[in-house]
Every structure is written in structure tokens, then in C-alpha cells.
Design goal:
206 residues, 47% helix, 6-stranded antiparallel β-sheet
């Protein structure tokens, strides 16, 4: 006789929450990752760390310019990484194409080239030529695997009708381009230059 383990009400409720939780947000025709809020918080925190290194000379008496360069570099590099990994990935659904924006690439795929949307290990688009394109807007994780990747399922539910309608011919080409904006590091660097100017001329510090 096989015994089937019974779940407590708490375990059942927790399981339902995990399976229904999605780590993506749909706004209009764009799908974002909710993890981007972690990236925003990390960017703000790292700017604070860099600013602290500027205004706190410590026991070594390091010159202000040196502290500013170190603090600014740390803030700039980590803020850029946080933006690239968490904020940048997204999917944008247009009339005939879908734009897949990953960490350093941006791929435009006509719907007619897509044969399937796989969710076994995150979110992957299979094309008619046999190639696959991973969408980083849904990351791989142990929790996601145990729950059946509900975020990827949500994306597939929104995209599948566009693929099944048959209204999109195979015309057009798949275009992948290298895409990496310098906007974030330049903004962080500009803020540190402003902070250096304040500490150097308004609140003189050596």
C-alpha cells in the first residue's frame, strides 16, 4: 500500500503562493522583470557607499581626489552591472515582431520565425531554423524550477496567441545587435563629479 503524504493547510497555502507568484510585470506591450527593483536599490546603495568613501578620509588621510576616484569607480562599475543584469532585460511585443532585450544584446524576431516558447529552464524561444534565443527577463532559479516557472508561463500565455493566430508570415529577418548603453555609468560619474565639486569648493575638504 502506498501512503500519500498529506499537506498541512499552511504548506498548501505556501505552495499556492509560490506557484502563483510571478517575477515579471506586464505594462502595455512590455514585460519587465520585478528584480529590477533590486537593481535600483543596489544602485542607490552603491552610490551611497561610493559617496561615503569620498567624505570619510579615514586614518590614512587620503587626498580628496583619490577618494573621489576610488568611490566613483566603485559606484559606477557596480551600478552599471546592477542595471545591466536586473533592469535592462525585457520583452517588447509589437504588431509583427517581438524585441528581446538581454544583458548586452537586443534581438528583433518576427513572430513567423518562432515555433515555440519553452519554459523548462527559464524562457527560451525556438526558431524555425532550429536555433534558440534565451530571454533573460525570466532568470533560471531553483524556486522557479520547483514551481514550474510561473513567470515564464505568464509570458507564454501572452505571446502564444500571437503565434497561433497564423496572421504573421515568415517574412522579415531575425536581427541581433550589440546594445549596451553608457547612460547609467555616465550619470553616476556625473553625480560623483558634482559631489567632488561640493566637497572641494563648497565644503572644503582635503
Amino acid at each position: 500500500m502506498t501512503l500519500t503524504p498529506t499537506r498541512t493547510p499552511y504548506e498548501s497555502e505556501l505552495s499556492a503562493i509560490v506557484k502563483n507568484f510571478t517575477a515579471v510585470t506586464l505594462r502595455g506591450t512590455t514585460i519587465y522583470s520585478k528584480v529590477r527593483y533590486v537593481g535600483l536599490a543596489g544602485t542607490a546603495i552603491m552610490f551611497g557607499v561610493g559617496a561615503f568613501l569620498v567624505v570619510a578620509p579615514g586614518k590614512g588621510g587620503e587626498p580628496l581626489i583619490n577618494r573621489s576616484l576610488v568611490g566613483g569607480t566603485i559606484s559606477m562599475v557596480i551600478a552599471w552591472m546592477a542595471w545591466v543584469i536586473t533592469i535592462r532585460p525585457r520583452l517588447v511585443m509589437y504588431g509583427d515582431t517581438i524585441r528581446i532585450r538581454n544583458w548586452v544584446t537586443e534581438t528583433v524576431v518576427p513572430y513567423g520565425h518562432i515555433t515555440g516558447v519553452n519554459i523548462e529552464n527559464g524562457l527560451t524561444f525556438t526558431l524555425k531554423n532550429g536555433s534558440e534565443i534565451r530571454a533573460r527577463v525570466v532568470g533560471t532559479s531553483i524556486v522557479g524550477e520547483l514551481a514550474g516557472y510561473p513567470s515564464a508561463q505568464l509570458v507564454r500565455r501572452h505571446i502564444q496567441p500571437l503565434l497561433s493566430s497564423g496572421a504573421h508570415p515568415e517574412g522579415g529577418e531575425v536581427r541581433e545587435t550589440f546594445s549596451l548603453s553608457l547612460k547609467v555609468p555616465l550619470i553616476v560619474a556625473g553625480l560623483h563629479v558634482l559631489l567632488y565639486g561640493c566637497m572641494r569648493y563648497i565644503f572644503p575638504m582635503s
